[in-house]
């Protein structure tokens, strides 16, 4: 059984080129491609999947400017928790780049809570 984290941001204004460039850099910085390669080659580590962003030219709803879903590592409870932590941190950073958007981030049917003071998702709630 796979569990995924889903993310959607909506606002009237499309992403600017500078926002898109920062998002691309953040996704690159949080890439787990080396971990995926190691797992495939050795069986060691978590069974990660890459962070996935849907095609922005075909949004699922009007005003959607950023959306996607990523399957969480599932080869242990620790792996899943680390996956949620890792991707929630990336999404927190992306949310802080994309000002004025309404966000919905959830793991299957559990919404992640945004901590306005800390400017990050609080995965403990």
Automatic annotation (TrEMBL):
It comes from the Bacteria. It comes from Priestia koreensis. This is Uncharacterized protein. The lineage of its organism: Bacteria, Bacillati, Bacillota, Bacilli, Bacillales.
């Amino acid at each position: 059984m796979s569990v995924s984290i889903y993310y959607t941001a909506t606002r009237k204004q499309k992403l600017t080129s500078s926002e898109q460039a920062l998002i691309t850099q953040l996704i690159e910085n949080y890439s787990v491609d080396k971990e995926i390669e190691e797992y495939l080659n050795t069986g060691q580590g978590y069974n990660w999947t890459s962070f996935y962003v849907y095609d922005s030219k075909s949004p699922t709803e009007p005003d959607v400017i950023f959306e996607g879903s990523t399957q969480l590592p599932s080869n242990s409870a620790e792996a899943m928790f680390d996956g949620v932590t890792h991707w929630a941190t990336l999404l927190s950073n992306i949310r802080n780049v994309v000002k004025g958007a309404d966000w919905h981030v959830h793991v299957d049917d559990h919404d992640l809570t945004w901590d306005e003071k800390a400017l990050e998702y609080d995965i403990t709630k």
